[in-house]
Amino acid sequence: MRALTWHGRHDVRVDTVPDPEIVNPRDAILRITSTAICGSDLHLYDGYIPTLRAGDVLGHEFMGEVVDVGPKSNLQKGQRVVVPFTVSCGDCFFCKKQQYSACDNSNPAETMDASRLLMGHPMGAAFGYAHLTGGYAGGQAEYVRVPYSDVGPIVVPDHLEDDQVLFLSDILPTGWMGAENADIEEGDTVAVWGCGPVGLFAIQSARIMGAHRVIAIDHYPRRLELAKQMGAEILDYREVDVREALDEMTGGIGPDACIDCVGLESHGLTVDNIVDTVKAHAMLATERPHALRQMIMACRKGGRISIPGVYGGFADKFPLGQMMEKGLTIKQGQTHVQKYTQMLLGLIEQGQVDTTFLISHHAPLEQAAEMYRHWHDEQDTYTKIVLKTEAAKQSAPKEEKQHELA
Amino acid sequence: MPDNPALSKSNQRALIGAGIAAAGATAAFLLSRRTGSSGAPVEDISDAPDHVWRRGTEHYDADLVGNTVTIGKPPQELYDEWADFTRFPRFMENVESVEKLDAKHSRWTIKAPAGTSVELVTRITEDNAGKSIAWESEPESEITTEGRVEFIEAPPGRGTYVRLIQRYDPPGGIAGKGIAKLFQREPKIQARRDLKRFKSLMENGEIATNASPSGRKSESPTEPRI
Q: 20 to 30 Å CA-CA from A97: which of A278, B86, B197, B216?
């Protein structure tokens, strides 16, 4: 089959690799129709995540048609399913608590030691995301093996297009959990750092959860425009002093809740961020948490910080004292995708959540490497890229609507 | 705090004591081997299990390893699975086969480097249904080993703490790292991985594997990779 493989920093290629096979009784094999490139794929592309190996198949946002099942799968051939990026067994202590991303079984015995060493305990597994998280091949490919297929995949109704449901795999539940972790109360002003796909979904989710106001922070005009479209007030941090603006917009107390949809590769022109960038490139630190630092300073006393943005290790100059003295509550974590998929599918069907407004580009899987470059270099125009496989043409009766491929 | 009221420090020692009485003097490894600067044994006040590293000992005692894992099943069910040694190859990476010789004796074939293998015969020295099993190698074995597995009731709703304590004596005086070489891996890591596979098998009915395609020519999509 054809698949997008990683070969090194800023080097991904569409290669021919073997087809996946059923290995365990609960497995299923999907023929992928749609697969997206995630913001967190850029952390892999930029070489920030250790334990990725040359030849690894990337991609953790995908959907497709079931073409083969193991004897213990409850899926049937021909079903259309979306697959959570978190590989979760459904049986362990964590899965039973719906803390699916903390699954204790999915990261295999052979790969669990690295994250055990780095994090204290082995992490749950994810598709297409380095060997720290299990080393499972990802879904930017024509086919994928889906373990625990009786737990993760959600069957989607035929009347919904791929584009409407694809993001149930990651960014929609991630934005939703990001807003949920902000414990939004009536009258709240919620500030969201980062208007990438997760930020945009966090804004939309915060509105649904009853936030009185949402203030979105970014520097890409197109992304800020999308945030505004979702009902947010916007701040371009290259234009204004964000902290002063937030204080002045909230009567001097700061936002009640702040959501970090930026993660470990924060942009920004401040001294701390430039120092972080140098250190990260010299391997002295793994994070560039400028946005998170600013968030802790900006948040109101006794407020809440939610971190859906990805971090991978150690941060420098972290405002721990500020967090403590201000009495902030911090909630964070990889998304427990399986906990939210059914409910969010309901919201999509009822038309309460718009999942397609952020898609700027469609491209065939064959152009994936080029799309990674655009995604990396042109974040203003490329707000979300969806890759289509050959199988998509066969399964879609009508011609795929192609957005501009500049 | 003891990790289980039923296994407070003194109870645990008593349990080990019982095991030792059954196993004979060779099981002395299960007792604390810590000594102070004067060479006299040191009594500590911590409720941690005996195999947990103590200050004043070597950081890593290569031949004695202990690991505990929580499995969401009752002790009896896990005991029943473990009691049939012939099933070990399913979750113990280095165990090629185990053949039952009689009620107490089994012949193990263990993978060694360069496609070779070593054989040993073990004798069950302790068998408390639903609670613990211990074994040791018979003198004619190519390597000397002892092991003990305990199935300890975890807090309510959490299943069972499965604790595996093993010791290997390397053949022909190869110390420490020699054993790691023999097993291709540090025994502690090996034991942790074996327990993890046992957990996965018991909780999921299958053992987690990342076997899937990659662009690396040397790999098969049906084989796990590191």
A: B197
Residues of A with Cβ-Cβ distance to B194 under 8 angstroms = 109
**Residue B14: enclosing H or E segment and its boundaries?**
helix B9-23
- According to DSSP, the β-strands at A213-218 and A189-193 are parallel
In a domain, B13, yes or no: no
pLDDT of residue B58: 57
Asked if the model's pLDDT at residue B215 lies above 80, the reply is yes
pLDDT surpasses 50 at B170: yes
Please indicate if any CB of chain B lies within 8 Å of the CB of A268: no
Measured between CB atoms, does A83 come within 8 Å of chain B?
A: no
Domain end, chosen from A287, A305, A332, is at: A332
Average model confidence (pLDDT) for chain B? 79
H/E run at residue B81: helix B75-83
Q: Give the total number of structural domains in chain B.
A: 1
Per-residue pLDDT, averaged over B135-142, amounts to 90
A240: Cβ–Cβ under 8 A, 6 or more apart, which residues? none
Residue B136 lies in a domain: yes
Is residue B36 included in any domain, yes or no? Answer: no
In whole angstroms, what is the distance from residue A399 CA to residue B7 CA? Answer: 67
Going A260 to A263 to A265 to A270, the CA torsion angle's sign is positive
For chain A, list residues with pLDDT below 50: 397-406
Looking at the DSSP bridge assignments, the partners of residue A265 are A288
Select from B189, B197, B210 the Cβ nearest to the Cβ of A136.
Answer: B210
- Summarised one tens digit per residue, pLDDT across range B8-35 is 444 443 333 333 333 333 334 444 445 5
Q: What is the pLDDT of residue B49?
A: 83
pLDDT for A57 equals: 97
Residues A89 and A186 placed together within one structural domain of the fold: no
- Cβ-Cβ contacts under 8 Å, B202 against chain A: none
Return the closest-CA partner of residue A34 out of A81, A85, A86, A74.
A81
Of A279, A309, A332, the domain-final residue:
A332
Residue A403 lies in a domain: no
A91 & A196 share domain: no
Domains contained in chain A, number: 2
Across-strand partners of A170? none
Please check whether residue B224 is in contact with residue A24, taking contact to mean a CB–CB distance below 8 angstroms: no
Question: What confidence tens digit (pLDDT) does each residue in A308-320 have?
Answer: 998 877 878 889 9
Domain annotation covers residue A361: yes
Q: Do A25 and B205 touch (CB under 8 A)?
A: yes
Question: For position A21, which CATH number holds?
Answer: 3.90.180.10
Cβ separation A147–B208 shorter than 8 A: yes
pLDDT classification of B1: cutoffs 50, 70, 90: very low
A46-68 per-residue burial string, b: 16 or more CB within 10 A, e: under 16: eebbebbbebbbbbbbbbbbbeb
Q: What is the pLDDT of residue A187?
A: 96
CA distance A108 to chain B (A): 5
Instruction: Test A56 with B220 for CB contact under 8 angstroms.
Output: no
Asked if A54's CB is within 8 angstroms of B215's CB, the reply is yes
Q: For chain B, what's the residue count?
A: 226
Give me the domain span that covers residue A163: 2-170+335-395
| Per-residue model confidence as pLDDT tens digits over B45-101 | 888 888 887 777 654 455 678 899 999 999 999 999 999 999 999 999 889 999 999
Query: And the tokens for A150?
Result: 């009786």
